[in-house]
């Protein structure tokens, strides 16, 4: 029996999408084979792949001076590919807001000089640095930030204003609400939260930035090679691409990003409101920077953590353990998690609290 899965990633996939894939698993359309067994060069597969890409373009309203690439290597490979392609012996500016931006900085530092334009490490990443405190370089290659820190539950709800081309890791927030893509030179996201199964990484790159990229790198590390090959430089993760296409179609059928944003806002609001009035649980993040996707909460008596996790598991609420570096609990409530799941979580938390007054 399927239960409510609050995993941070790989995360829940809409049940409708899983059921459709199940129905098509043995034979896709009248092709005589599973989608997993089909050549990525076949006309059937190419039309499916193009439709998925077009649906993503429609959902995010991506202007036509952007390339939309479907790559592999996870968001983590982007931590290296970005400086490899774009640093060009210039300094690169980074915002340090949590675990993932730290990892991006560590990787970039192996390739280029990095300036940390602002950091919230001193307050243990419980807020994001404010724009007034940015110390940007004069001639940076780009400005990188993580729009939603999945582990700390910190979000920058508006893109920062940067002097250099803005690059955002949107792994855990992409497709959760409308965004103005034209404010960014590049957006990237690993698929396994709001897009589909692991194995696919979406990169949306402004042509103007792409034109500055290095062309002397190994082909697999070069964005322009991937763009020229329609993201099929080698065999792409065909099943993950197919599943992501289904998620895009599902989102469109719900009414697109405005519709899902409304649902997401209500989900996050109900959970934060409950946590804030509770005597047992608290969320340490400053209110302006609270993520709507990943909601950490700490029990004011950590001796109860094990019992909480066991009892929530028994109640059909899975994967609520916080990241080991932060402790406590975390509920990831991506697009595929409905309000019913959040309501079930709150009821459980209430009951648990009433037993431990
Ligand atoms: C914000 C963010 N960036 C990067 C990553 C790394 O993604 P991947 O495992 O796809 O390399 C994650 C994974 O959870 C993430 O949450």
Detailed description of the structure:
With 357 residues, this protein is α/β, with parallel strands linked by helices. The protein folds into two domains: 24-254, Aspartate Aminotransferase, domain 2 (3-Layer(aba) Sandwich); 256-355, Alpha-Beta Complex (Aspartate Aminotransferase, domain 1). It contains ten helices and 14 strands. It has helices at 15-24, 43-60, 74-86, 99-109, 207-210, 223-228, 238-254, 256-277, 305-314, 339-355; strands at residues 4-5, 66-71, 92-96, 114-119, 143-146, 148-149, 154-155, 166-169, 186-190, 201-206, 281-282, 294-299, 317-318, 329-332. The strands form four sheets. A seven-stranded mixed beta sheet has the order 2-10-9-8-5-3-4. Strand 6 and strand 7 form a beta hairpin. Helix 1 (15-24) crosses helix 7. The chain is globular and about 65 Å long. It starts with a strand and ends with a helix. The mean pLDDT is 97.
Keywords:
357 residues; alpha/beta; Aspartate Aminotransferase, domain 2; Aspartate Aminotransferase, domain 1; 2 domains; seven-stranded mixed beta sheet; 36% helix; globular; binds pyridoxal-5'-phosphate
- Residues in helices, as a percent range: 25-40%
End-to-end span in angstroms? 32 Å
Total beta strands: 14
CATH topology of the largest domain: Aspartate Aminotransferase, domain 2
* Rg result: 21 Å
Small molecules held by this entry: pyridoxal-5'-phosphate
| Biggest β-sheet description | 7 strands, mixed
Strand content: 15-25%
The CATH architecture of the largest domain can be named as 3-Layer(aba) Sandwich
Class from helix and strand fractions: alpha/beta
Number of domains: 2
- Mean residue pLDDT: 97
CATH class of the largest domain equals Alpha Beta
Widest sheet: strand ordering? 2-10-9-8-5-3-4
Please state the overall shape, judged from the principal axes of the Cα atoms.
globular
> For this structure, what is the CATH homologous superfamily of the largest domain?
Type I PLP-dependent aspartate aminotransferase-like (Major domain)
Compute the number of helices. Answer: 10
Give the SSE string: EHHEHEHEEEEEEEHHHHEEHEEH
Low-confidence stretches: none
């Amino acid at each position: 029996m399927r239960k409510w899965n609050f995993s941070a990633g790989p995360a829940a996939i809409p049940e409708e999408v899983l059921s459709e894939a199940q129905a098509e698993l043995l034979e896709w359309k009248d092709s005589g084979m599973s989608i997993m067994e089909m050549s990525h060069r076949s006309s059937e597969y190419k039309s499916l792949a193009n439709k998925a890409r077009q649906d993503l373009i429609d959902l995010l309203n991506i202007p036509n001076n952007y390339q939309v690439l479907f790559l592999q290597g996870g968001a983590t490979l982007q931590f290296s590919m970005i400086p490899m392609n774009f640093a060009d012996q210039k300094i690169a500016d980074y915002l340090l807001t949590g675990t993932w931006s730290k990892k991006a900085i560590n990787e970039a530092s192996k390739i280029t000089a990095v300036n940390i334009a602002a950091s919230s490490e001193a307050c243990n990443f419980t807020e994001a640095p404010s724009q007034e405190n940015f110390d940007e370089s004069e001639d940076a290659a780009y400005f990188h930030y993580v729009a939603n820190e999945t582990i700390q539950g910190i979000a920058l709800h508006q893109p920062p204003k940067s002097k250099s081309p803005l690059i955002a890791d949107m792994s855990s927030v992409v497709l959760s609400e409308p965004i103005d893509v034209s404010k960014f030179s590049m957006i990237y996201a690993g698929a396994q939260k709001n897009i589909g199964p692991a194995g696919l990484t979406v990169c949306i790159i402004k042509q103007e930035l792409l034109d500055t990229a290095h062309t002397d790198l190994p082909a697999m590390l070069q964005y322009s090679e991937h763009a020229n090959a329609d993201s099929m430089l080698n065999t792409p993760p065909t099943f993950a691409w197919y599943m992501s296409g289904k998620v895009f179609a599902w989102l469109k059928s719900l009414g697109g990003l405005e519709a899902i944003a409304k649902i997401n806002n209500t989900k996050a609001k109900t959970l934060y409101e409950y946590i804030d009035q509770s005597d047992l649980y608290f969320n340490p993040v400053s209110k302006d920077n609270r993520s709507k996707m990943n909601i950490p909460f700490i029990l004011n008596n950590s001796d109860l953590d094990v019992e909480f996790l066991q009892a929530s598991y028994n109640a059909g609420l899975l994967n609520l353990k916080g990241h080991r570096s932060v402790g406590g609990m975390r509920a990831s409530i991506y697009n595929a998690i409905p309000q019913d799941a959040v309501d079930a979580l709150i009821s459980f938390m209430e009951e648990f609290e009433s037993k431990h007054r």
